[in-house]
DNA sequence: AAGACACGCAACCGCAAACAA
DNA sequence: ATTGTTTGCGGTTGCGTGTCT
């Protein structure tokens, strides 16, 4: 479901010319994720463009911000949007419109992008179909109110709500999965550090990340969101909390 | 088995607001 | 007050994957 990294440029392997200084676009490689994650985790964010520079990423600050906000932030929820959350989205969208960031702010762990995608790909379609059906019945042309929609939502979305116990969530940085999966702690991801448990996350095509976070604290930090690590564990990691300002 | 189509998601783009110099 | 920079937001696109025919 997730695209393989096309790694928009052909310069990544360090052919040090001016091309190498060009800004990268396209999907993020695990190595870039790692750099960004470590940079923000240990040093926080002054400005996003400085983050990009300090992490030696050939990305715009804007791109770094987006990647962090939508994917790398450890406080993101990894499970699918629940029925309850969907009801909230529908109800808020009807009352305030497409203000996705506002809607996201009411739903901890969800991003505006995620909600927007969810709306565009699923809910809107269903509402339109419902509205059309309503018109065909000679009913009002307005979209069905949230309360009515709930019934349909319930009927169509039950499968989404029961996310089984997934050891490593689908949406989780590959390098983090590698660490958790026994990669770094046992001497780094050398050899075949199979990202098998991350099947649908970004597979790096050949340029395997080194996962060279030489600090086992990182393992705890990266995984705290899913494994219910106590928050005070983070306090043991100097500078770790700077990122959350 | 193969091609067409639909779906879901990551990321880009353009714009506007906020802020700094 | 003006100009330049950064950040945040919403709309949109591109593309990998799953499903259907």
UniProtKB/TrEMBL annotation:
InterPro entries to which the protein is assigned, alphabetical: Homeodomain-like_sf (IPR009057), Myb_dom (IPR017930), Plant_SW-associated_TFs (IPR051953), SANT/Myb (IPR001005)
CDD domains in the record: SANT
A GO biological-process term: regulation of lignin biosynthetic process
Location of the Myb-like domain: 20-72, 73-123
Residue ranges occupied by any HTH myb-type domain in the UniProt entry: 20-76, 77-127
GO molecular function: DNA-binding transcription factor activity; transcription cis-regulatory region binding
Protease listed as a keyword: no
Highest taxon of source: Eukaryota
Biased composition (Low complexity): 192-206
Gene Ontology cellular component annotations, sorted alphabetically: nucleus
Keywords: DNA-binding, Nucleus, Repeat, Transcription, Transcription regulation
SUPFAM superfamilies: Homeodomain-like (SSF46689)
Chief site of localization: nucleus
Short name of one Pfam family: Myb_DNA-binding
Cellular localization per UniProt: Nucleus
Region (Disordered): 1-28, 129-167, 183-214
Cross-referenced PANTHER family: MYB DOMAIN PROTEIN 55 (PTHR47997), PTHR47997:SF91
Name this polypeptide is given: Uncharacterized protein
Species of the source: Panicum virgatum
Organism classification: Eukaryota, Viridiplantae, Streptophyta, Embryophyta, Tracheophyta
